[in-house]
Amino acid sequence: MSHAKSTLSRPLSWRTWLVLLVLLSLIVLLFLRKHPNYKVSAETSRLPIPVATAVAEAGASLSHISALGTVTALNTVAVSSRVDGQLMSVSFSEGEHVNAGQQLALIDERSYQAALEQAMGQKQRDEAQLEQARRDLERYKPLAEHHSIPEQQLEQQQALVHQEEGAVMYDEGAVNTAKVNLAYCHISSPIEGRVGLRSVDPGNIVHASSTTGIVSITQVNPISVVFNLPEEQLHQLRSLSAHGAPLTIQAWDRADKQQLATGKLAAIDNAVDTTSGTIRVRALFENKGDALFPNEFVNIHVPGAAQQATILVPTQAVQHQADQAYVFTAGADGLAHRVPVTILGAQGDRTAIGGIAPGQQVVMQGFDRLNDGSQIQITPAGSR
Q1: What b/e readout covers 22-52, taking b as 16+ CB neighbours within 10 angstroms?
Q2: Sign of the torsion angle spanned by Cα atoms 278, 284, 267, 71
Q3: pTM of the model
Q4: Phi/psi at 205 (nearest 5 deg)?
Q5: Which CATH fold would you assign to the domain 65-74+219-303?
Q6: Same CATH topology for 65-74+219-303 and 77-216?
Q7: Are strands 309-314 and 76-79 parallel, antiparallel or unpaired?
Q8: Which of 4, 33, 141, 365 could be a cystine partner for 52, CB 3.0 to 4.6 Å?
Q9: Is the predicted pLDDT of residue 275 greater than 80, yes or no?
């Protein structure tokens, strides 16, 4: 009896533990074979991600293409002095509309006037010497024919005439240079446009080498708007503009509440930007009432014919990665599914897409942490 009791109290050996571990592994494998749908994943162990969703609705595709554009001046000129001197006066008001050729400023021209007079005096003196050399040449010719003077003297006189002719041509260049410098003292506007804020006040010394300039002029009539379109809308835009007449483009304010101007499609860039999947487009506006201001942001609408029925979702639900647009849908299994979509149009806070069915729930908040297959928990919008 005592021998049996000592045997039961003896600890199990390592061989016994190994046998038990093998038996336990076999039991687990048999269980997984009988239940093949049972899976253990790291995803099931995580807490669901709270998201807000919206229902994809069936509706007509939007009647126009929309984009955010930047008002861009066709010409901008920094007006600088092309000569050194004191700025005597300016003849414009800041923000004023000026015409091409209108005088803007005056540089002290006295030294340049004196240089012109000096060049003209030098030219007059050399012209007199040329005239005298030509007369002497005419007198030497008959004398040389009768061998009254050496032939060499006649050749020297001919060379002197050519020398004086060169001096007069040089003087003409100096006179023209002086006239140009004198004209540069009167600074005129090279284009029609609106002047900005003055950078230099009268009385200061300006230099031709200065990079600051006196004032800038921006052309505002006409003016352009440059905007980017997703490449998915490129063929739609080209089809709308392929009917002969220029395609109408509308510019709306930043809040997309008020139309500012109406223009025409001017140009489509020659290649799609592969990094963003967009293409640059330029529209031209007459801008007679100066409704568009350079460098401001505007909403661009491209009216077009209504298309067939499609799916409308909140614009914020549509995500972009490289050249692919996609949405996250909330499945009945409680998981998020990433679905590629095609953008057919956009207007305000709604976007027309293709690729999902009406009635599906799309994630519009909380997708920053989502992956395909992430567990989600639907919450009211704005409660995150």
Answers
A1: eeeeeeeeeeeeeeeeeeeeeeeeeeebebb
A2: negative
A3: 0.60
A4: -90, 125
A5: Elongation Factor Tu (Ef-tu); domain 3 (2.40.30)
A6: no
A7: unpaired
A8: 365
A9: yes
